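[09:14] KT: can someone run the structure on this one? pasting the chain below
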Amino acid sequence: MGHFTLLFASVLLFVLPTLLSFHPKVHLILGYKSFLISGFITNMLIWPWHFAFKNWHTFYYEKEYTLGINFLGQPIEHYIFIFSLVFFNLFIFTNCRLWFRVRFLMKIYYSVSFVFFGILIFIIKDHFNETLTAISIVCVLFLLTLQLINRRVFVLWFYPGWFISLFPMFLLNLFLMIFPVYIILENSVTGIRLLNIPVEVFLYQLAIYAIGLVLYEWSSRSVFKIPEHTFIVEKDLE
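[09:31] RB: done, structure tokens below
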């Protein structure tokens, strides 16, 4: 695929959930305005992160797998990829709402949160000097704190959505690492890998997942005033 590799992965990540988003129970495609806001703002928030990675020589894209068109120091496909990743995560999250009931999730949400907090703090304690590790974990801890204090019911589907997304994200990153489309320097990660994929990649995508989710829900309720297209409907509270 050559220069179209990253673009191909980005488009594929967007097209697959789009084809399924017209299902009457999902309705995700009806909230496209909220998705556009979520994807745009997420890109803005992620850009300083990648700017720092590039200047600290932590992470970069291989030029032979991109179109060679850059914007603000990043390949244009990078922004398409973030948009696609946000939409893909929202699609999985919305389907989780259809399958997992609130009462069950209320029993495990806080327990999982505190266990996850403890694991992240234990990792960062010994690996704060690794750039990608430190930044990823600090951002995730901050976002998880926001999730814990958020009293809206929609956050209860946060973990099921992320856990389910791990498998397709694993396949996607495995595909991107084979070429490799992106390079992560060894001195910026802990060395913990899953088939050559640094664990920090999944933390990075968790941060994007959390940002996109909160922004989508916020824009649906506060900007467009369309609660019927958001994640929470009355039957979820039964």
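[09:33] KT: thanks! Helices lie at 5-20, 32-55, 76-99, 102-126, 131-149, 158-178, 199-223.
[09:34] RB: yep, looked fine to me
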